[in-house]
Amino acid sequence: MSFVPDGFEPPLRLAAEGLELEPLGPQHNEGDYAAWTSSIDHIRATPGFPDGDWPRPMTPEENRNDLERHAADFAARRGFTYTVLDDGRIVGCVYIYPLRDGSAGAQVSSWITANRAGLDSPLRAAVRAWLSDAWPFERVDYDG
C-alpha cells in the first residue's frame, strides 16, 4: 500500500496563523541550520522528539544532505517535510511520514524554534486542520 493514493497531489503551501509552510529542500539549508541549531534543547523537549536522536550535532553540509533526503522523499511520495516560515524566516519544520507501526495513516511531528515557541500551539492547530481538510489520511498520529 502506498503512503498516499496515486492521484493525490500533496499541497505545496499552507498559510495559516501568520505562518507559511512550503516543502523543505536544500535551498533552505542556511536558515534551517540556524533555526534548529539555536534550539536543540527546546526541540528535544517538544513532543515527538523525546529519544534524543535528533537534533544531533552536524555540519551545514550534513544538514544539506538531510534536506536533500527530505526533498527526495517528497518527490517520491514517501514522506513530506515542510519548512515553517514566519515573515519569510525559517522557524520550524513539519514532518509527515508513514505510521511507525506500518499501518495506514500518517505520523506527524513538528518543531518551532525556542525564540518563537508561542507559535507551537497555533502551528499544531493549523496543521491538524490542514491534515483533516487537505490530506487523504484516515488516521493521523500527531505527537503531543
Give a description of the structure.
The mean pLDDT is 93. The chain contains four helices and six strands; from the N terminus they run ββαααβββαβ. Helices cover 32% and strands 24% of the residues. A hairpin with a 7-residue loop joins strand 4 and strand 5. It is of the alpha+beta class and 144 residues long.
Question: Could you report the average pLDDT, rounded to the nearest whole number?
Answer: 93
- What percentage of amino acids are in beta strands? 15-25%
Count of discrete alpha- or pi-helical segments spanning 4 or more residues: 4
Q: Helix content range of the residues, please?
A: 25-40%
* Shape verdict: globular
Question: What Rg, in angstroms, do the CA atoms define?
Answer: 14 Å
Largest sheet: 6 strands, mixed
Strand ordering within the main sheet: 1-2-3-4-5-6
Low-confidence stretches: none
| H and E string | EEHHHEEEHE
Number of E-state strands: 6
Oligomer: single chain
Distance between the termini: 27 Å
Structural class: alpha+beta
Could you write a compact summary of the structure shown?
Helices cover 32% and strands 24% of the residues.
